[in-house]
């Protein structure tokens, strides 16, 4: 089954490590994969670790905003294991 066939199963969630996000190259990579596969970004959700977004606030906001602008859904992975609060998360362009 190719990537477009996944859509009949719902969305796919992908865990992303902080090291993969740093430097913003992930935005370019995700855009390339979407273009190559023809996968509709509404079916893709990236799970970002709480630790990364709390330690790299400005970079995280910039990168997550660019990913969201591609149509990707964004979620926090392992929320509550670090030191963030629900009110602090309002700063981030998260979708779930």
TrEMBL record:
It comes from the Bacteria. One of its GO terms (molecular function) is cyclic-guanylate-specific phosphodiesterase activity. Pfam families: EAL (PF00563). CDD domains: EAL. InterPro entries: Cyclic-di-GMP_PDE-like, EAL_dom, EAL_sf. Residues 1-96 form the EAL domain. This is EAL domain-containing protein. It comes from Candidatus Reidiella endopervernicosa.
């Amino acid at each position: 089954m190719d990537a477009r066939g996944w859509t009949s199963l719902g969305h796919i969630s992908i865990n992303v490590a902080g090291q993969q996000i740093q430097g913003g190259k992930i935005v370019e990579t995700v855009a390339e994969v979407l273009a190559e596969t023809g996968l509709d970004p509404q079916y893709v959700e990236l799970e970002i670790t709480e630790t990364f977004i709390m330690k790299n606030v400005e970079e995280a906001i910039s990168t997550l905003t660019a990913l969201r602008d591609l149509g990707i859904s964004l979620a926090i992975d392992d929320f509550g294991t670090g030191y963030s609060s629900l009110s602090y998360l309002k700063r981030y362009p998260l979708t779930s």
